[in-house]
Amino acid sequence: MPDKLDVKKIKKYLKLEENQCPVERAMRILGGKWKASILFHLKEQPLRFNELSRQLPGASKKILNQRLQEMEELGFVKRTVKAAKPIAVEYSTTPAGVEALSALDGVRDWAAKHNI
Prior knowledge:
With 116 residues, the chain is α+β, with helices and mostly antiparallel strands. It has one domain: Winged helix-like DNA-binding domain superfamily/Winged helix DNA-binding domain (Arc Repressor Mutant, subunit A). The protein contains 6 helices and 3 strands; from the N terminus they run αααβααββα. It has helices spanning 7-14, 22-30, 35-42, 49-55, 61-74, 95-113; strands at 47-48, 77-83, 88-93. It has a 3-stranded antiparallel beta sheet. The relative contact order is 0.17. The model has no long low-confidence stretch (mean pLDDT 88).
């Protein structure tokens, strides 16, 4: 997995416009429902799908799977097949995912400061 984001791919995938505010573009990438939570739960260690699903009880498995696929496509999450039978898949953050987490730290700190 490359250390840098494929910006052209992200812009095309999310239909980002150059004239949009940078914060708006960033929120389109990271602000989708469950994306930040997924990154947060993967920051300490890789997790298998069902382990991650248990840590996000409000997310259906279908939605979780969709978000993981999107984040893998965009380069924030890496999917590793650990076993074929039964299928065992593990997810971890990429360097780009770790970088995004550091950007989200400010949001987390702001929410904690204001009890929201």
